[in-house]
Amino acid sequence: MKEQEKRVHKKRFKVPHTYVIIALIILLAFIGTYVMPAGEYDRVEDPATGRTVVDADSFENVPQNPVRFFSFSENHLFSSIHRGMEDASNIIFFILIVGGAFNMIQGTGAINAGIGKLALSLKDKGALIIPVMLFIFGVGGSTIGMAEETIVFIPIGIALARALGYDAIVGVAMITLGASAGFSGGIANPFTVGVAQGIAELPIYSGAMFRIVIFIVFQIAAFLYIMRYAKKVKADPQISAVRELELAEKDQKIDLSELPQFTTRHIFVFITIIIGFVAMIYGVIEHDWYITELSSLFLMMGIFASLVGGSGPSKASLDFVQGAKDLIFGALVVGIARAILMVMSDGQIIDALVFSLATGISTFGTTVGALFMYLVQMILNLFIPSGSGQAATTMPIMVPLSDLIGVSRQTAVIAYQLGDGITNLIIPTSGTIMGVIAISKIPYEKWVKWVAPYVGILLIIGAIFVAAANIVGLT
């Protein structure tokens, strides 16, 4: 009886909703304004970079200024949400516009048809399909932040894997591990690197070469990990990590001939995308484009892709609204998370916290400080799985901290993106991975058991990259 009660108790436990977790952090910040000593640094402009930086020698304690629970005439705890939304409005609108624009492109059917055509052309080419699919979805993860979008391709991946003598794990892995490698590497991911660099006052997509190296290493690691398993399963299907599923699904096959046909219109859509990304690279490098310019470019890509793809004005509009709607969760997380900064700034405790962290970490050296940031981001990713939300929550603290302990801001962004990205493959709060295993019918515990060693390998590689970025002084 007691054992049954324990099982019921375990089943009832759930990780709180992301908004609840952020609300608790806001409440802790509010309480902190009453119990923590207040203090502030002077901010000065760095003549070499034009960035606003902390004057390391200027910290001084100031009288406590606790935030009011409610007030008719002053800023208070509950007004911090609205003020946070206002303060983060440029990022929120960026996320919504880009999300809507990408869904307009998706709505033309070009991406589904293109990947379907590629998959069909490779179905008789054996193991070649694994690196190709890894690369395709890796590019998607590193450029448009492809994550939830991978879910629709899971049945195709599984069908192809089974047709080649592999199992569902291989079919899922060549899509999700590829997208994860791209998302973590974040060469030009607007939702993670773009947001974090914006907060850190860094040129958008700067440090791209370093990120390309991360992307390549992660792709190689994924390829080797999947191929090692795939060869074993093909040689002996009995050792499949999901053998029971394979036996149950042996008569369930997807007709690959029913995939969307790739048309001339789809070719024009891809040409539009290519032109758009070329324009983005040129604008960022030559004209210092920032969030406003990038939003407008993505919107243009969505509109022109819809026109050449034959969506029509009404469908394109519906696609835009749906794309923005799909990202409203993450966009609101950014604004709500910014309320933490509002409360801490009003209570003048953010600089005091940074001062305490810097004092403690600086004695261990800058590399340990960078790795500490990496660890913090990993832990927080369990509770704030939204990449842009995590950037909005942590970067306002990590940026001044990095200035004080001698870690470059670019390294702080690297620590954030790797700490945020890698563990998305395994955390139960990730809507993407839970959606993937649901549609693939792979039990969560079996997926975790299979992918955990790979995640562990990437975490070690990630730590090496963070340390390397600090040692070379990545800017």
**Count of β-strands:** 4
Helix content: 55-70%
Q: Order the strands across the largest sheet as they lie in space.
A: 1-4
* Series of H and E elements: HHEEEEHHHHHHHHHHHHHHHHHHH
Please, what is the average pLDDT? 86
Textual characterization of the structure:
This protein is an all-alpha fold and 475 residues long. 70% of the residues lie in helices and 3% in strands. The protein has helices spanning 2-12, 18-35, 79-87, 89-107, 110-122, 129-143, 154-163, 168-185, 193-199, 208-235, 243-248, 264-287, 291-309, 313-326, 328-346, 350-361, 366-383, 387-405, 409-421, 431-440, 444-472; strands at residues 38-40, 43-45, 52-54, 60-62. The strands form two sheets. A two-stranded antiparallel ribbon has the order 1-4. The chain has a two-stranded antiparallel sheet with strand order 2-3. Strand 2 and strand 3 (52-54) form a beta hairpin. The chain is globular and about 70 Å long. The model has no long low-confidence stretch (mean pLDDT 86).
Which features characterize this protein?
single chain; 475 residues; mainly alpha; two-stranded antiparallel ribbon; two-stranded antiparallel sheet; 21 helices; 70% helix; 3% strand; globular
